[in-house]
């Protein structure tokens, strides 16, 4: 029995590391990606034990813009509310249930000409596949209304977004001009699915999602001579969990995505440079967390983790759970520069607050079971 458990640990760890090291991704977005799950996969809508989930997530990002030779900042924020059906406090995870969610994501700052808002409506269906409730499948879909604004007059120079800290969704191609102001709105769609397995000693979770299903046109400066359709984004996530003892759990997590899945194009080559950041072609999140489980005699529980973005940054993580009702997650992402490669310059200070409510609007304790 001990030999089997150790083999499971080794094999699963190798899978997690292998998946992370060979993943491709592009977009900066949030470092605490699990704190805004509907931005990762619409199937995560309602993926929690509770009736209502409310989350607020903010990230202040800075980088050195090499084109303008000055510091550039961006503020990203996300607010979300999710509502589940079939909720019973005595059975927080029923055999099957549906969920809806509202999500409002925004980015922008006075030092950059591009800002955008993305209100979204998501829906998901969750079901267990067996009577023991160990195998589960979730599917979800999302509709997003993107609203972008570009104003170069406030900056006073010809500027393109710095893709290390820009939230994406809108392209600035060609020569936008110093005095250009422009807006663009469009409708976008995504779909996703999750498979999960959980036993007393081990848990496994894998998700796949596809964004920008119908190639929306996103060139906000309206250049007719350049490619304006947004390419598909494929997103994959993986989580492995191991029970160390009755109070501690070890988690391996990775999330990666690839922009540029544009099957209508004659070439997969990225001619715009939009899908390459800081000289890096492969981008992914990979990390480990040591989780302390809530105890009845302790009001404050602290957990810790360490993540990296493409082995180019380091992200120490702290999670504080107060009375099992308020979950606060914080990180500071710092680049690990090398003289041999073009440096990844962005830094991020990030904070997320998550709460769970019952049907009467009362905050309820969070539980993984």
How would you characterize the overall build of this protein?
The chain is mostly beta strands. The protein has a single domain (2-357), classed as monomeric porin ompg (Porin). The chain has one helix at 2-21, and strands spanning 52-65, 70-84, 96-108, 114-128, 135-151, 181-198, 202-211, 232-243, 248-261, 284-292, 300-309, 313-322, 326-335, 347-357. The chain has a 14-stranded antiparallel β-barrel with strand order 1-2-3-4-5-6-7-8-9-10-11-12-13-14. The protein starts with a helix and ends in a 12-residue tail after the last strand. The model is unreliable at 1-28 and 262-282 (pLDDT under 50).
What is the tally of beta strands?
14
This entry's quaternary arrangement is single chain
Indicate the overall shape.
Answer: globular
CATH fold-level name: Porin
Question: Could you state the order of secondary-structure elements as H and E?
Answer: HEEEEEEEEEEEEEE
Strand content: over 45%
Gyration radius from CA atoms, angstroms: 21 Å
Report the uncertain regions: 1-28, 262-282
Q: Helical element count?
A: 1
What is the straight-line distance between the termini?
24 Å
- Helix % is under 10%
**Largest sheet entry:** 14 strands, antiparallel, barrel
The overall number of domains is 1
- In the sheet with the most strands, the strands line up as 1-2-3-4-5-6-7-8-9-10-11-12-13-14
CATH level-two architecture: Beta Barrel
Residue-averaged pLDDT: 79
């Amino acid at each position: 029995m001990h030999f089997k458990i150790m083999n499971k640990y080794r094999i699963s760890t190798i899978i997690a590391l292998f998946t992370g090291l060979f993943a491709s991704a592009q977009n900066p977005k949030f470092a605490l990606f699990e704190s805004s799950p509907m931005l990762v996969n619409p199937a995560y809508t309602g993926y929690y034990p509770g009736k209502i989930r409310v989350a607020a997530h903010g990230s202040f990002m800075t980088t050195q813009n090499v084109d303008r030779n000055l510091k550039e900042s961006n503020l990203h924020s996300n607010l979300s509310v999710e509502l589940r059906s079939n909720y019973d406090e005595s059975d927080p995870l029923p055999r099957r249930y549906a969920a809806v969610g509202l999500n409002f994501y925004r980015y922008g700052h006075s030092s950059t000409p591009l800002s955008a808002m993305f209100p979204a409506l998501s829906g998901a269906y969750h079901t267990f596949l067996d009577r023991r409730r160990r195998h589960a499948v979730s599917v979800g879909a999302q509709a997003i209304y993107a609203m972008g604004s570009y104003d170069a007059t406030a900056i006073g120079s010809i500027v393109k977004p710095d893709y290390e800290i820009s939230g994406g969704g809108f392209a600035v191609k060609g020569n936008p001009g110093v005095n250009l102001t422009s807006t663009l709105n469009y409708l976008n769609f995504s779909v996703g699915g999750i498979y999960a397995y959980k036993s007393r000693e081990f848990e496994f979770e894998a998700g796949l999602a596809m964004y920008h299903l119908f190639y929306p046109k996103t060139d906000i400066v309206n250049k007719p001579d350049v490619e304006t359709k947004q390419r598909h984004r494929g997103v994959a996530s993986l989580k492995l969990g191991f029970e160390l003892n009755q109070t501690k759990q070890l988690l391996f997590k990775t999330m990666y995505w690839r922009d540029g899945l544009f099957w209508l194009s004659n070439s997969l080559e990225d001619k715009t440079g939009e899908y390459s950041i800081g000289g890096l072609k492969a981008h992914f999140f990979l990390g480990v967390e040591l989780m302390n489980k809530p105890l009845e005699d302790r009001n404050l529980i602290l957990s810790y983790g360490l993540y990296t973005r493409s082995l180019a940054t380091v992200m120490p993580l702290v999670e504080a759970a107060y009375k099992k009702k308020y979950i606060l997650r914080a990180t500071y992402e710092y680049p690990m520069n090398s003289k041999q490669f073009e440096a990844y310059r962005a830094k991020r200070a990030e904070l997320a607050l998550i709460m769970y409510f019952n049907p009467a609007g009362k905050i309820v304790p969070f539980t993984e079971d």
